[in-house]
Design goal:
Keywords: Carbohydrate metabolism, Glycosidase, Hydrolase, Polysaccharide degradation, Signal, Xylan degradation. With about 300 residues, this protein is of the alpha/beta class. The chain is built from 12 helices and 9 strands. It is globular. The chain starts with a helix and ends with a helix. The chain binds ligand G3I. The site of ligand G3I has 8 residues, from loops.
């Protein structure tokens, strides 16, 4: 296989990219996406502020553009994200508890119904835990007004809406074994014990010199898989360049392949110029869509050439 998607498919995995609707008209962007990837995550277009900017009034056109493009190419789509404290419209944060609960459940129901049949996995809840050693939940309108039970409620509503979609919890700085990942681990363990519907855990995997690829990355993915959920690498990017960056990309791909329940990887953008890390070069393609050494390392770790 000579593309990321085909090589990953040969290993029973997908290889995806975060996509922004406003770049789809750029010929090289679309050509690279279509050639290399077999899964897509909308980078911003499915977030709450994009799809329900005003209460009860939904605007799906930009997200639809991405989903239609991807499905037309036979790609999978990851839904990102239903319940998150960021990119949340002001009207949501202003609601009192009982109203907030019905707004959350309505949002999940409406968005998942619109995309039913087209989304492989949903990030139902994103980034609900604090950084640092406390293992505590992050303060947010959902946490502060609905309490710990909001995550469980979101997953139950999601399952009732689209029983065929895989339901994921997604977070960052949970890639190695640490206090934050252990807090998420304990939540997933509790959900499995009590029959709360959860199918997968997403590990964002935004790496940089201050937050390098952890040495226990594979072991951490494996301990989650051992709970009976799939694991996915959902927002991979690695600051750096040249051979050092390439080695890191190869290590990440190999960690996923070593865990049978690691079902796929998604990189958080295509060319460096469109990375959310404005000044960085964390992706697999340079600004002219040339393949970087990191690309070659990822492809070869997947068994491609
Ligand atoms: O669309 C508006 C535009 O209308 C406005 O003029 C412009 C001025 O600031 O902003 C545009 O919105 C920006 C949006 O991206 C779309 O480009 C926001 O400012 C900007 O903050 C937003 O950044 C996104 C970020 O999430 C916001 O939290 C990044 O593109 C996106 O890559 C990033 O993705 C997150 C994941 O969803 C969750 N995990 C972390 C990851 C990286 O931060």
């Amino acid at each position: 296989a000579d593309t990321l998607g085909a090589a990953a498919a040969g290993q029973g995995r997908y290889f995806g990219a975060a996509v922004a609707a406003n770049h789809l008209g750029e010929a090289q962007y679309a050509a690279t996406l279509n050639r290399e990837f077999n899964s897509v995550t909308p980078e911003n277009e499915m977030k709450w502020d994009a799809v329900e900017p005003n209460r009860g009034s939904f605007s799906f056109s930009r997200a639809d553009q991405i989903v239609n493009h991807a499905r037309g190419q036979g790609m999978k789509v990851r839904g990102h994200t239903l319940v998150w404290h960021s990119q949340l419209p002001g009207w949501v944060s202003g609601l009192a508890a009982s109203d907030l609960r019905s707004a959350m459940n309505n949002h999940i129901t409406q968005v998942m119904t619109h995309y039913k049949g087209n989304i492989d996995s949903w990030d139902v809840v994103n980034e609900a835990f604090q950084d640092g050693g406390s293992g505590a939940r992050r303060s947010s309108p959902f946490q502060d007004k609905l309490g710990n039970g909001f995550i469980e409620e979101a997953f139950r509503t999601a399952r009732a809406t689209d029983p065929a979609a895989k339901l994921c919890y997604n977070d960052y700085n949970t890639d190695g074994v640490n206090a934050k990942s252990t807090a998420v681990y304990n939540m997933v363990k509790d959900f499995k014990a009590r029959g709360v519907p959860i199918d997968c855990v997403g590990f964002q995997s935004h790496f940089n010199p201050n937050s390098p690829v952890p040495s226990d990355y594979r072991a951490n993915l494996q301990r989650f898989a051992d709970l009976g959920v799939d694991v996915q690498i959902t927002e991979l990017d690695i600051e750096g360049s040249g051979q050092a960056q390439a080695t890191n990309y190869g290590n990440v791909v190999r960690a996923c392949l070593a865990v049978s329940r690691c079902t796929g990887l998604t990189v958080w953008g295509i060319p460096d110029k469109y990375s959310w890390r404005a000044s960085g070069t964390p992706l697999l393609f340079d600004d002219n869509y040339n393949k970087k050494p990191a690309y070659t390392a990822a492809l070869s770790a997947l068994g491609g050439t």
